[in-house]
Amino acid sequence: MYLRPAFAVTALLAMLAGCASLTESTEQSVMVQTVLDHREIAGVGCVLYNDVGKWFVTTPGRVTLRKSAGPLRIDCQKAGKGWAYEKVESKADANLWGNLALTAGVGYVIDKNTGAGYDYPATLTVVMHPAQEREEGPTPSPGVTLF
After folding, report:
1. What are the φ/ψ torsions at residue 137 (nearest 5 degrees)?
2. Is there a domain that residue 12 lies in?
3. In what order do the strands lie in the sheet with 53-58?
4. pLDDT at residue number 20
5. Which pTM value belongs to this model?
6. What is the 3-state secondary structure (H, E, C) of the chain?
7. What is the CA radius of gyration of the chain?
8. Domain limits at 93?
9. How far apart, in whole angstroms, are the C-alpha atoms of residue 2 and residue 9?
10. Which residues contact 99 (CB under 8 A, 6 or more apart)?
């Protein structure tokens, strides 16, 4: 009779032990650096964003962002130098897979929604494209929305 509560508590603790939301942070610090023509270029403004937020950093620099199961998009630009747009996929860490086995999928769903079970690369090297002179074209007619 007294074993049921003890067993229930033990089972609950075992299930929570695999939960990355309890052991891992939902935030991650990443280093962003930019390269143009095989050389590092400093002072580039980059916007990093995923489905849970948006962050700004000037390269080379470090920024703390919220982790997500979705991709991280990086949009960089430096006037007169160049631009870049890249997408980095998040990777499931070992805690996420252990969580799937230990909690019968319940913790997996929680970790997927919080991003705690995922990581982005610690260093993001963004390859810039050289700036090109803009061609002078016809002026858009009034009322046309440009995106």
Report:
1. -115, 180
2. no
3. 53-58, 45-50, 72-78, 82-88, 129-130
4. 46
5. 0.68
6. CCHHHHHHHHHHHHHHHCCHHHHCCCEEEEEEEEEECCEECCCCEEEEEECCEEEEEECCEEEEEECCCCCEEEEEEECCCEEEEEEECCEECHHHHHHHHHCCCHHHHHHHHHCCCEECCCEEEEECEECCCCCCCCCCCCCCCCC
7. 22
8. 25-129
9. 12
10. 18, 19, 20, 107, 108, 111, 117
pLDDT, tens only, 17-75: 544 444 568 899 999 999 999 999 999 999 999 999 999 999 999 999 999 989 999 99
Q: Per-residue pLDDT for 147 more than 50?
A: no
Average pLDDT over residues 2-18: 57
How many domains does the chain divide into?
A: 1
Tokens of 126: 């963004």
Say how far apart CA 14 and CA 19 lie, in whole Å.
9
Residue 30 domain-assigned?
yes
Amino acid (one-letter) located at 51: D
CB 74 within 8 A of CB 87: yes
Percentage of the chain with pLDDT > 70? 59
